[in-house]
Design brief:
Layout (H helix, E strand, L loop, with lengths): L2 H13 L5 H13 L4 H18 L1 H11 L14 H6 L1 H6 L1 H8 L3 H13 L6 H7 L5 H12 L4 H10 L3 H11 L9 H9 L5 H11 L7 H8 L7 H9 L9 H10 L8 H8 L6 H8 L9 H8 L6 H8 L7 H18 L2 H9 L4 H17 L7
Helix pairs in contact: 1-2, 1-3, 2-3, 3-4, 7-8, 8-10, 9-11, 10-12, 11-12, 12-14, 13-14, 16-17, 18-20, 19-20, 20-22, 21-22, 22-23, 22-24, 23-24
Protein name: HEAT repeat protein
Length: 386
């Protein structure tokens, strides 16, 4: 019997109430046993899951978890479970609270299906998404904030969300929401709005909306805007200004300087370091020159090293640049750590990288560089690390 027809007949049987999930499980087993093209098999599984989820959502999710990573067809569509996740979208939309109960009990289910559950949330149920966002894994909290940002009532929803967390969480969620989106209105209008709002969640939201307007602003224009910010608000403004910037943002270095100036070390996240590393608006020399202006502080070690990686893409050029730095200085030692990383990433030359680390004067920086080098080598798949 054709497996797809078997699945359809089992679904009809379950729909009449005789056997319910047992019939779906039987049909699922038939599909697994059938040898057929991956696309055809996955299509049949998707159709079955869609019907199964209407009757027994938890059973359908468990079936998905058991079959999502089928490897019987190496190198084919069978390696992806996207069609099967999509098959559950309707049930997630129609039963968001029931789906939440199931997913929140199973960490694996949440990681594999949580984003689809968030995206399937109907508009009238977004307040429920707001109420549970704090309980989501961090990557899905960001997804939830992004989804709220797309709604026409985004300001109200984001403020509701921010009120459910700590001040730090609230700020992080608002940053996540505006990472790729820009607020409506001009920068002067948005500036006036947050300056006229009393301190609190609403003001933080409106300041973040204002900051989102500077994604494509150059340093001179950003400097002019910075002068309009009251001294008491500059620390928070510096953090928020960095959130929407990306490798194409011309004002990135100016914004980084303001974060350094106001001591916002928590703003230097891995995402921001990635933005700095692949910054398109300045060349390797501009980044290296800027890095030399950074104060010698441990909190800035990652920023300093990251800014040098483009220059050190040619290790010989990197060594020449380092020779200009004072012997035994913090900047020279941290530059040597960056050079060792570049030797691993560019040429996979672990012995050379180890020799570079050994030339670092400060014992703490040398130790940290050695530990980081081990991690970088592992990421590069280099064997025989000892």
């Amino acid at each position: 019997m054709d497996s797809a027809k078997s699945a359809d007949r089992a679904a009809i049987s379950a729909g009449r109430g005789d056997g319910k999930s047992a019939a779906f499980r039987q049909a699922w087993s038939l599909l697994i046993q059938e040898a057929q093209a991956p696309e055809e098999r996955m299509r049949a599984q998707g159709n079955l899951l869609r019907e199964w989820a209407k009757m027994d959502l938890e059973g359908a999710i468990q079936a998905y978890l058991g079959e999502a990573w089928d490897t019987r067809y190496p190198g084919t569509l069978a390696y992806t479970s996207e069609p099967l996740r999509n098959a559950l979208a309707s049930a997630f939309s129609e039963q968001p609270q029931e789906a939440w109960k199931i997913l929140s009990r199973d960490k694996m289910a949440m990681q594999l299906l949580g984003a689809h559950w968030c995206m399937a949330m109907p508009a009238h149920k977004l307040p429920f998404l707001v109420s549970v966002t704090r309980e989501l894994p961090p990557n899905l909290q960001k997804e939830a904030a992004t989804i709220l940002m797309r709604h026409k009532q985004k300001r109200e929803l984001l403020i509701q969300l921010a009120r459910t967390g700590t001040p730090e969480q609230a700020e992080r969620w608002l940053m996540d929401a505006y990472t790729r989106a820009s607020a409506e209105g001009s920068a002067p209008e948005l500036l006036a709005k947050w300056r006229d709002t009393a301190p609190g969640i609403e003001r933080t939201h409106d300041m973040m909306a204002w900051a989102s307007r500077f994604r494509r602003t150059d340093s001179d224009e950003l400097a002019a805007e910075w002068e309009k910010i009251p001294e008491a608000d500059r620390a928070q403004a510096a953090r928020l200004l960095l959130a929407p910037l990306n490798p194409g943002s011309p004002g990135l270095l100016y914004a980084l300087d303001r974060a350094v100036e106001t001591g916002q070390w928590q703003a230097f996240t891995p995402d921001l370091l990635g933005t700095l590393r692949y910054w398109e608006a300045g060349d390797a020399n501009a980044l290296a020159e800027w890095s030399a202006t950074l104060p010698a502080k441990q909190e800035l070690a990652s920023v300093y090293q990251t800014a040098l990686l483009k220059k050190f893409g040619d290790p010989a050029q990197g060594r020449e640049w380092i020779e200009q730095l004072p012997e035994g200085s913090w900047h020279r030692d941290q530059a040597l750590a960056a050079l060792a990383r570049s030797e691993i990433e560019k040429s996979r030359d672990l012995p050379a990288a180890n020799r570079t680390v050994e030339t670092i004067s400060d014992p703490d920086i040398r130790r940290q560089a050695g530990e980081a080098l081990y991690d970088h080598a592992l990421k590069q798949g280099i064997q025989n690390l000892r």
